[in-house]
Amino acid sequence: MYTMKNIILKDKEIEAMRHIRNFILHSGQMPSVRKLMKALGYRSPRSAMVMLKQLVSKGYLEKKIDGSLRFVKDLPETSTAAQTVNVPLVGCSACGSPILAEQNILGMIPVSVKLAKPPYKYFLLKVKGDSMDKKGINNNDLVLVKQQCTAKTGDIVVALIDGESTIKEFNKSGDVIVLKPYSSNKDNQPIILSKDFQIQGIAITVINNL
Predict the structure, then answer these.
(1) For a Cys-Cys bond, which of 19, 129, 173, 183 suits 188, CB 3.0-4.6 Å?
(2) CA angle 65, 207, 110 (to 5 degrees)
(3) Which helix (H) or strand (E) holds 39?
């Protein structure tokens, strides 16, 4: 049992938090009520819904504008002597909206300040696809990204093109931009651009398939 600022987490709530956190990191989304029900050994969805409401009331989960839930506070056991900063976790597709828009943030994950170095801002991106597997960035990996809107040739960037985020190597020659994949899949081809895209950040490190 944990006590934080007069907020007490029961053993079952701790178990639920661990499952939710792991599910988000593996799948890039909150577990459904039924998945949580099965993971916690409940016999009805109502018990899982009550659990989620309790975690919202205690400040560990938060209800978003669209009614879905977001993971906003981790368990104390994940903290170490090293200082951490909470970094937003987002899915790879931004669906036409800014990548860090409210509806795209899946949760807040503590990351060591040795990786997420202040005063810069960062986000974690859940990778979908194999377009950069030869660079060690694989499907379902997490990439720590430093937020910035500029890049130099050779940087691995997160770019927003036609409403979706993509991870590629940035190359510039005059006014022409080439976003180059490094993939074992020949279907992944370079993207040639002149404008109409936005750099959202630079990849700092990869957290391989947790």
Answers:
(1) 183
(2) 50
(3) helix 33-40
131 a catalytic residue: yes
Q: Which domains does the chain have, with CATH numbers?
A: 2-77 (1.10.10.10), 79-207 (2.10.109.10)
Is residue 66 classed as helix, strand or coil in its secondary structure?
coil
- Rounding to the nearest 10 degrees, give the CA dihedral for residues 137, 87, 165, 69: 120
- Annotated active-site residue 126? The verdict is no
CA distances from 73 to 30, 55, 77, 79, 150 (A): 14, 10, 12, 11, 31
Tell me which of 131, 165, 180, 183 is the catalytic residue: 131
Task: Pick the catalytic residue from 73, 126, 165, 168.
Answer: 168
Adjacent-strand bridge partners of 199: 159
- Residues 113 and 111: their CA atoms lie apart, in Å, by 6
pTM for the structure as a whole: 0.70
17: tokens are 């938090």
What are 1-33's pLDDT values in tens digits?
Answer: 444 444 678 889 999 998 888 888 777 778 899
